[in-house]
Amino acid sequence: MSAGRKLSWDWFAGTIPENVIVDETAYIETTFSFQFFRSIRPGGVAYGRGASTYLGTMFDVGPQGRVTLGDYALVHGARIICDAEVSIGDYALISWNVVLMDTYRVPLNSHERRKELELVPTRLLRMACADVPARPIRIERNVWIGFDVCVLPGVTIGEGSIVGARSVVTTNVPPFTIVAGNPARIIRKLEPRTTLPHAPT
Ligand SMILES: CC(C)(COP(=O)(O)OP(=O)(O)OC[C@H]1O[C@@H](n2cnc3c(N)ncnc32)[C@H](O)[C@@H]1OP(=O)(O)O)[C@@H](O)C(=O)NCCC(=O)NCCS
After folding, report:
1. What is the pLDDT of residues 39-86, one digit of tens each?
2. Sign of the C-alpha dihedral, residues 201, 98, 165, 107?
3. Are 180 and 160 in contact (CB under 8 A)?
4. Checking phi first, is residue 11 left (phi over 0); if not, alpha (psi -120 to 50) or beta?
5. Using a 6 Å cutoff on CB, does residue 181 contact ligand 1?
6. Is 56:36 a contact under the CB 8 Å cutoff?
7. Does 162 sit in the ligand 1 pocket, CB within 6 Å?
8. For 130, left (φ over 0), alpha (ψ -120 to 50), or beta?
9. Mutation test residue for ligand 1: of 93, 149, 168, 187, the one with most atoms within 8 Å of CB
10. For residue 151, what are the CA distances in angstroms to 16, 85, 86, 157, 191?
11. Are 85 and 136 in contact (CB under 8 A)?
């Protein structure tokens, strides 16, 4: 599972999973972030240049899940529930207690959900993980997501957009737009800065 990569500053006695790609300029505050990481995909998490994840960030990634963090992306304590794909673009800023979920992990049908809960105590990893569809989430570059936001399966948040604190994002957000509320609605448009360069190479 792990080649034994540890972090010298870590308070948790964990290691970085073998299939996690970490650029040499990236920062991981603690390997506790991988406590729920079960991906077997190559690059199950991939950190770009200067990307950072801080305390409270949890990669709850299923066997076929994959999370990518772009260059200089900063995740300040999000729960990333991923059974397919969650991509976080260059310079995206994700605040405290954000939840990005590309799957609900339980069926919507109450009878099916009850059957799933009955299975939980029989599992080695005592968790709900029904075979329900996952739909990728895409956070494009320069996006800012405020604290306590929830982003639901299948959502794309367009380049340069801002999501207000405590919003629930149920549908795609166009580029350069501020959205807020539950469900998140457009507050106003931002000036598109098409001259913003990509991360320096
Ligand atoms: C999204 C945000 C940046 C917008 O700020 P703003 O442009 O100054 O917005 P305003 O205060 O002018 O509000 C515009 C309207 O949106 C509403 N609104 C703003 N933020 C909202 C939110 N989070 N949820 C619901 N409504 C919100 C306001 O009530 C106002 O509505 P009105 O026109 O009916 O009066 C800000 O509200 C926000 O959520 N900041 C959170 C920052 C954060 O999480 N920081 C963590 C550290 S990274």
Report:
1. 999 999 999 999 999 999 999 999 999 999 999 999 999 999 999 999
2. positive
3. no
4. alpha
5. yes
6. no
7. yes
8. beta
9. 187
10. 26, 13, 11, 9, 24
11. yes
Residue position matching structure tokens 């956070």? 139
Instruction: Spell out a b/e string for 57-75, using b for 16 or more CB atoms within 10 Å of the CB, else e.
Output: bbbbbbeebbbbbbbbbbb
The predicted-structure confidence for 117-127, as pLDDT tens digits, reads as follows 999 999 988 98
- Residue 163 beta carbon below 6 angstroms from any ligand 1 atom: no
Token pair in block for residue 92 = 């995206």
pTM equals: 0.93
Q: Which domains does the chain have, with CATH numbers?
A: 20-189 (2.160.10.10)
Q: Which residue lies with its CA nearest to atom 3 of ligand 1? A: 164
Q: Ligand 1 centroid vs 157 CA: distance in angstroms? A: 17
List all residues 6 or more positions away from 173 whose beta carbon is below 8 Å from its beta carbon: 155, 156, 157, 158, 161, 163, 179, 184
pLDDT, tens only, 167-185 = 999 999 999 999 999 999 9
CA of 192 to the centre of ligand 1 (A): 19
Task: Please tell me if the CB atom of residue 49 comes closer than 6 angstroms to any atom of ligand 1.
Answer: no
